[in-house]
Design goal:
Length: about 180
C-alpha cells in the first residue's frame, strides 16, 4: 500500500500546478514569443517586441512565483503598455493573438488559412489608422483569406474587395465590390 500511495502522490505532483502543465507552458513560451516577435517585426519595423516571462521573484526572498507576464519593449527598452498609442497596442495584441493561434494550430497538426478581425479597429485614432492598415497587411501575408469587419468608412475603402451588408425591411442584403 505504501508503494501504491507513493505512486499516486507522484502522479498528483506531476499533474498539479507545478508539474507537467507548468512544463508544457514553460516549453511553449519561447515559441509563442518568437512567433509574436516575428509578426511585430513585420508590423512595426523591428521597433516593438515582447518578452514573455513565466516566473518572477516572489515577495519572500528566494521564492519564485508562476505567472505569465507580457513585457512590451520599444527598441529593447521596457515601457508601460498603457503609454503606447492605440495603434501600437493594437499591433502588440494582434501579434500575440496570431502567434497563439498559429502555435495552437501547429500543435494540433492544423493550418490556419482564414484570418477574421471583427471590429478591432475602433480604438485607433485617424493618425494611427494607416499604421493599423499596414499591420493588417503584414498579417494578411500569413493567411490565404483575410476578412476584416469594420464600420469605419475610411478603412473600408482601403480594401480591394468588400462585402457590403445592408439591412432592409426584407432582411439583410449583401453586395460584392471587387
Amino acid at each position: 500500500l505504501a508503494e501504491e500511495l507513493a505512486i499516486y502522490e507522484l502522479l498528483d505532483q506531476a499533474c498539479g500546478k507545478k508539474g507537467v502543465p507548468a512544463l508544457i507552458i514553460e516549453n511553449a513560451v519561447p515559441e509563442i514569443e518568437r512567433l509574436t516577435n516575428d509578426m511585430l517585426s513585420r508590423m512595426a519595423g523591428g521597433r516593438l517586441a515582447v518578452q514573455l516571462d513565466t516566473q518572477i521573484e516572489g515577495k519572500t526572498t528566494g521564492t519564485v512565483q508562476e505567472v505569465l507576464r507580457v513585457t512590451v519593449l520599444e527598441e529593447g527598452a521596457e515601457r508601460p503598455y498603457q503609454t503606447y498609442s492605440g495603434a501600437e497596442r493594437f499591433m502588440v495584441d494582434l501579434a500575440l493573438r496570431v502567434a497563439l493561434s498559429k502555435f495552437l494550430a501547429h500543435r494540433a497538426g492544423a493550418e490556419i488559412k482564414l484570418f477574421v478581425l471583427d471590429e478591432g479597429l475602433g480604438a485607433c485614432d485617424q493618425t494611427n489608422r494607416q499604421a493599423v492598415m499596414d499591420a493588417i497587411g503584414a498579417v494578411a501575408q500569413e493567411f490565404a483569406k483575410v476578412l476584416v469587419i469594420t464600420h469605419i468608412a475610411e478603412l473600408q475603402d482601403s480594401f480591394p474587395q468588400q462585402i457590403v451588408v445592408t439591412k432592409g425591411d426584407g432582411g439583410s442584403k449583401t453586395r460584392l465590390i471587387a
